[in-house]
Fold:
Amino acid sequence: MPGDPARFSFTVTAPPEPATARLGASVRIHGARFDNQRVEIRYDHIPPQLLQPAATMKAVSLELAIRGRHVGYLPGAGDEVAASLEQMGYAVTPLTGAALTPDTLRTLDAVVIGIRAFNTRKDLTERLPALFAYVEGGGTVIAQYNQSDGLSPDWLAPFRLHISRDRVTDEHAPVTVLAPGHPALTTPNRITQADFEGWVQERGLYFPDQWDERFTALLASGDPGRSRSRAVSSWRGTGKGISSTRASRGFASSPRACRARIGCSPISSPCASDATTGGRPARGERAAGCARIPYLAQRLPVRDRVVRSPRRAARGLLPVLLVNLLDWVVLLGTMLGIATYGSWRTRQVRSLSTYLRGSRSIGWGTIGLSVMATQASAITFLSIPGQGFESGIGFIQNYFGLPLALVIVCAVFLPIYRRLGVYTAYEFLGRRFDDKTRLLCAGLFLLQRGLAAGVTIYAPAIILSTVLGWRLDLVIVGSGLLVIVYTVTGGSQAVSLTQKWQMAVIFGGMVTAAVVLVSKLPDGLGVTGPPTLPAPWESCTRSTCRSIRPGATLSGPASSAGCFSRFRTSAPTSHRCSATSAAPPAREPPRARVQCNPEDTHAVLHPPAGRLPLRLLPVRPSSRVLQSIRVAAARRGGARRDVPGDRGAP
Amino acid sequence: MRRRWPPPSPPPAPGSSARGSDDSAAEAAARSAMIEANRRAEAVRGEAKAALLAADPRAKTKDSDYVFITFILTELPHGAIGLLVAVMFSAALGSKASELNALGTTTTIDFWRQLRPLAAADEARNVRVARWFTALWGVVAVSFALFAGFAENLIEAINILGSIFYGVILGIFLVAFFFRRVGAAPSSRPR
Structure:
């Protein structure tokens, strides 16, 4: 049935030689191709993020030598090493601190300690002696990285090992192998320079800076420009098999580049899908370079990096929707022109009365426009049409009281203010009552309006930046600075001057929108009257329903679009298109009306919109999701465009 | 070619012909078809909203604020798009400017001049102070806007708190304007 999830299983056979492949998924619906996946990032400390990167997965066929069979895994702050180990063919036993007994350890070939386990586990330190004894007896322990906070250098390893907060932030920083022949780097798989290619985020961090002489430094790395390499991983050989304690950053000595900790948040779990390609844990198994872009996109909380896919910059919704140069000229021309005009004309205001109240020579028309401009905020123009769309225009009666209120204000209050020559209504209160009343009311006003002042800028900015793909903070700061400049320069006089011209822009824009709106109404609804020619496709391509003359061939281009493809491609029981004959209008040839199901429009909203359009948070992914919705809509539109090929069919 | 989005409630093609046909049966059929189509469009919208909520329970699914701007971006010719975006900014700047002016005025007159009565004589200084206050409120507004996303609840709380006092302020003004005598000690009367 439409809307149901479908699961397809298949087996991929790996080639005998080492190779890397990219597996992609794509589905074709209504002639439109969907090939992105949905990635959800949900943590308590950040707003949920939904991403839709390309649905690809990297598959690696690699030569991997395995030594031992049973591995114990002690989870830390969270990584996916256990899953990777199982993929490699190990039997993984989950451990807790309490399970670190000689009896348990005896059955294990190696123990892997999860990232930051020493920081997050309370039950670990007291059991360390058993673990150390296990190493002493020939066992292998692999510890991934820990943070130095609150860690005693004596806890981490049998010998002293002090962890610094050093990090190597350049992911391309060269790595020097200090002990090339060391078993940790050669058995069972050899670590080569190729294993250090294609890392993400950084080379490593929390490297040890002091260690017992019984440790061997294996690898060194440093950021370019630093005087010397300062990162070392440590390894200890007992001569009896290999036992290791590596308290440094896990990936500093293993090629699991994708296990990069990203930012300082739990988002930094290891790259999930690489785990499915046979990830290698901390033991020096061989690895091909990790694919990074998908992981970055999946894991990074950093907005800019998340939303930018390599091929398509996140700008606006659709290329055709971007405001072009002409729009920019009009927009910036009017806005900057009005602001410049306002501040230039009023640059010589010297008296407080003119600055705060404007000059008494301002005409009534200007004042009227000024009142209108004050009353009409951007939200009026953005939300009110939406309200009409949602529930009709009955709410307009709320505005009927407004002229009445203004008349009362003009007839009753203003004459008194003017006679007294006050600047503010609170000054009047001060004269009428006392200063306490005046300060109370003025203070309440400042508190209320002052703190709500941001909303006047913010509310339209969030909508415009979401839809246009502009940066929210730039929109806010830009428009805020503009208004500050001319308001501060010219005071009240500049305000009313600019408002006069802003109202002209508003009226001009509204008239333009109204003309376009009426001209775009479907035939029969607009001022053009009933259609003179029956043009079923013309009106249908713009709606979710379509009319087709009976006898029209549904194969060919038409059948590849819209609900017909549903009909054709899915089981007959699952198509929900119904063909009913409408009562034939008198002067028209009879038609069959084929109505598409809501699912037909569903494709417009597919892939599911993750972030909401109206989320009042200054995060960019919303525009990204809008973009993908748009792209889906456009693809669909593209499919529809094929339809007129059927027009000649009757 | 630009497309409408979100998909509008479908204007039924049969309806348009029905209106010109003087055929009441066709008209009724077209009408019910349109109502039905509209209902289905609403159902799709509801479905999309439900999907959003499933993806993010804290999601705000009010999409109607985007209707007009989407119409502008998808249907208007270039140039007109710029004009209409300028309309939005004009409206925002217009009300913002009045607001800043009012805030600056009240701060200067009711607070600064009240607290520093001697400064009232120096006109140039007064203007300078008023400018500074206006600019200050502008900066406050911009910083609030920058952090409004994080301070959403705070702003809501302030609005609620402020609305508690609306009645009080209205009462004060009504008394000031319409009562000749009040119980406290009025310093002077307007008439």
